[in-house]
Amino acid sequence: MLSCRDKYSYIDLGERDQANPLKWDKITPADYEIWDGYLDYDKTVANSKKRMASNPQIKLIEENAKWLKSEQDETEISLNYVTYKEEKEKDKEQSDYFKNLSDYDSKLTFESLKYEQELFTQDSVLREKRDRWHKSLAKDVYVEEAVNVLEDLKMNNLKNLKLASSVKN
């Protein structure tokens, strides 16, 4: 559906990226029928892709991913102290530039379910974990876009319901 890049997109992680990974089993997919209840589904996907392509935070994440990959692929270090120091200073500048990634705020707010909120009186650690998680979610551009997609789908579904009711009348 949507292709999203993150800072790990270009980095070889995990066993599958090793020279001799273990074989893995493929789970047979479940039988299902595609639900065709949304109006303008393709338009919703296109709108999301357009928002993502023009989002400066997404561009910064992509840039960061490429930089991390280039740093991972770097296998030579200059023995010339001046050159080495210049390279390290350049790396520090790049690293500082990407610190802006953690400053992002989607302005979304999150709260725990009622049953969890009741547990907070007995478990302050749980409250602390949820608070950190909610702050993390608010800084996640992909969560923000998921909310936008759901909003688009909801609006399209409402249009679909209005269209169906006008046909009946």
From TrEMBL:
It comes from the Bacteria. InterPro entries: Tail_Prtase_C. One of its GO terms (molecular function) is serine-type endopeptidase activity. Its EC number is 3.4.21.102. Pfam families: DUF3340. The keyword Hydrolase applies. Residues 8-154 form the Tail specific protease C-terminal domain. Keywords: Hydrolase. This is Carboxy terminal-processing peptidase. It comes from Maribacter litopenaei.
